[in-house]
UniProtKB/TrEMBL annotation, chains A, B:
InterPro entries to which the protein is assigned, alphabetical: Cation/H_exchanger_CPA1 (IPR018422), Cation/H_exchanger_TM (IPR006153), NaH_exchanger (IPR004709)
Major place of residence: membrane
Source species: Linum tenue
PANTHER family (UniProt xref): SODIUM/HYDROGEN EXCHANGER, SODIUM_HYDROGEN EXCHANGER
Subcellular location: Membrane
GO process terms (BP): regulation of intracellular pH; sodium ion import across plasma membrane
Protein name, per record: Sodium/hydrogen exchanger
Amino acid sequence: MGFDWSLPFGGLGGSIGEPDAAPVHSITLFVALLLTCILIGHLLEKSRWMNESITALVIGVVTGILILVTTGGKSSRILIFDEEIFFIYLLPPIIFNAGFQVKKKQFFRNFMTITLFGAVGTLISFVIIFLGSRKLFSILGIDFLDTMDFLALGAIFSATDSVCTLQVLSQEDTPLLYSLVFGEGVVNDATSVVLFNAIQRFDLSHITSSIALQLLGSFLYLFFTSTLLGIAIGLLSAYIIKKLYFGRHSTDREVSLMMLMAYLSYVMAELFDLSGILTVFFCGIVMSHYTWHNVTESSRVTTKHAFAALSFISEIFIFLYVGMDALDIEKWRIVAKSPATSAGVSSVMLGMVLLGRAASVFPLSFISNLFKKSDNDKIQFKEQIIIWWAGLIRGAVSMALAYNQFTRAGYTQLQGNAFMITSTITIVLFSTVVFGLATKPLIRWLLPGHTARSSELEDDAKALSLPLLGISQDPGAETSTDNIQRPVSLRMLLTKPTNTVHYYWRKFDDGFMRPVFGGRGFTPFVPGSPIERSLHGGK
Amino acid sequence: MGFDWSLPFGGLGGSIGEPDAAPVHSITLFVALLLTCILIGHLLEKSRWMNESITALVIGVVTGILILVTTGGKSSRILIFDEEIFFIYLLPPIIFNAGFQVKKKQFFRNFMTITLFGAVGTLISFVIIFLGSRKLFSILGIDFLDTMDFLALGAIFSATDSVCTLQVLSQEDTPLLYSLVFGEGVVNDATSVVLFNAIQRFDLSHITSSIALQLLGSFLYLFFTSTLLGIAIGLLSAYIIKKLYFGRHSTDREVSLMMLMAYLSYVMAELFDLSGILTVFFCGIVMSHYTWHNVTESSRVTTKHAFAALSFISEIFIFLYVGMDALDIEKWRIVAKSPATSAGVSSVMLGMVLLGRAASVFPLSFISNLFKKSDNDKIQFKEQIIIWWAGLIRGAVSMALAYNQFTRAGYTQLQGNAFMITSTITIVLFSTVVFGLATKPLIRWLLPGHTARSSELEDDAKALSLPLLGISQDPGAETSTDNIQRPVSLRMLLTKPTNTVHYYWRKFDDGFMRPVFGGRGFTPFVPGSPIERSLHGGK
């Protein structure tokens, strides 16, 4: 069971131990760069184009160049991209926070569409990228990849970047698009990871119907068990806090408990070979629906903003990281010998990404629209274009999968591997910068005035005018919409099947879940207003 | 500049990469144990004896035993103690939070006494432990240590555990003792680290007056530059937030900025070979005095509780870690061959710790009392006993320094080294459990009714009755005491020199510092009450 707890930043120099101060150098530089990104991101906030992700990517690349110049072309990075840091430390807070802050009503209203895009769409995209790249590479005369590599490419480039999507789409301005694209991103990440693992485990070079069935079964098993695990841990946290903390609150313990339970859901999922991304996402949703209502006023404010801040830091960290690693000179040297091939590989892959996503978004939107009766609920063509476009961004998940497939311990000596890594980097940089920058203008052009759904805009306006904004309401800002929507739900019940589900869920939630696990209106120990509450209940 | 970013928990098993799931196992187990400690700590809260530190230590030891049994005596730990994790990741949040939440008035009123105890006291303790252990070990016939080792022992066992002290002394019940013992602990940690580094750098086997002067110079240089760096970064954060965020607040950015700046202060200090502990402590004090007042209401609540929660998790982590590592079988096997020697070493060291601290606390209290005119401000003998007793706890800093001196990469093969490591563990466990458990009863016995300082108790009572407790006031709870104490300060000005300093500082603070860096009463952009503020200013 023993293992060495070595440090992410290597040994500590400075005042303790050896005089080797390089790691402390690196941490200091990295923290300073993170701060720079936040400052610049803040100053550019009014800008129509930029956001922190792109700023971080650019700063990362610039720093890489500076290091390259100062070290005389020997090295461009202060760190080696490690997909494990990404998957164990950086991704969980981001995805958890997304679940914690997501507008649950929007998300569940579109749940079927999201799952369709996320699961079936990713599969379509995977098949097209696999077949297309194999065909085109053989035409181009690139022969260093085997079938397994092509399958891996399909999985790697099917992973939409949910992190960047969070930044280019606004939950307030375009709630439908946000919940569709982001929700899809989460399911899609999970699907890609499942596919990728399946490729590494099964022998997929000869696909038979039995293997296809096994794959489907494995996916369904993973999807449901991961979701259930997340829900179970979320409910457990709600129950523990409701039962044990009854009447005698301690804010710091509550906050610690929520943080640790959230992280526990992720590592447990990884331990059982499930999808940690799905688990921690649903854990976040359940925690915001139940646990969050059982804690003190101070804990609510703290968790809401602390989770957001940790997620924010992780996001910037990832982009800075990707930007800095992009310039690693070793792999570019190998590739530089045959620039035409390199450009060919990148172009083919980019084309396949565009094509694969088009082949999934437009047909699936058509199918999804068939099940919607009201025109107002259908995904309009212009919206489909935005969904297609925003989902083209490839990010850190693609990077991590590519490094996992094509490198050994961060090094890229083999020529074929160097090509694959560099074209992954090219596509990640290109798609993040170009598609990322152009999403906001595209939305303004296609949907002037953000007309999205007028009723939701009204809800948002109401939410904004509530007293104690961000304190008394749900982190997902659900409170205000509920009271208004309840009669609408009853009407919808007669016309739409998904709302019947929602109606029964609401009954079940009010009748059983909330009395047991707590939740809005079922926190039995503190009567009165939030202000009174913080007077009497605060630690 | 390149280095490998390996993981604290080794490779990630689970859904990505290799099937080796041991690290995920370990993380999951560790997170689950942390949660268990929080739950048990909560359930035992009403207990007079226990606290989370001791719970964590006990759970760590029990888990160690379980692992030892299940692996058939081969291994007792899921991790190897690494002083770098401790110094880079776990210690900074604890010390920063201590600075952030410390009652500044108490701290600065006793600043001279604290520095006296922390610097001179540690030096006395160091000399006594060094000389005493060398003498007694030669009598016992233990001959495997050289002068350098004895010097290192002096530094290692002079480090009071400020983390455990935080838990056994209450800032509310015994404010004077808390600020003296905890404040001393911070300075003392720094002194020990300085001494320890000096030992590893200088040739101290032949101490001359020139080396002693160099050492003194080095200590003074370190003390002042570290403090200045902390203050500078704290002020920078206040200035940035005040200037750039004027009128358009973003809570998540503010919280991220404060977190990163705090961490930056620590790593920068380490980078410049200063004392990160001192730097981050003073950065915390400055941030709570200026920066904290420049941010939104939500950010104040969030930072107050998020920093406390992170510190809380780190504390439990450390004790769990020490408890689990304590049972590592390898070093005990070596020691088990000569149990008498082992017991002798531990007893000698424990005796020296008791003696060394007595020789510093009682004489220095006497000296400190000479400078106090009012009897009410003098440190009474009973209080001196508590200061002596609570400061006997040796904790993670001692462990970290001992591992640094006596192991190579976490392994303890040499017999002499095994003895030193096991007796360090023995003393840490013994002092934490015995001295830690007995501190609260001792205080109740010596100071029935916590009479400490009646005026402060009144202030605390007033603070508790303030509206929006924990939201509208300073993290150090200074707000309420200030208004009441100001006339008292003027009176004191005539009798006591330290209060003259305080008076001029207040003038300087109000006249120059606060207008420039913000602070209570000088946040120019938000008029009105905290409630109005969160209405208009919240993100």
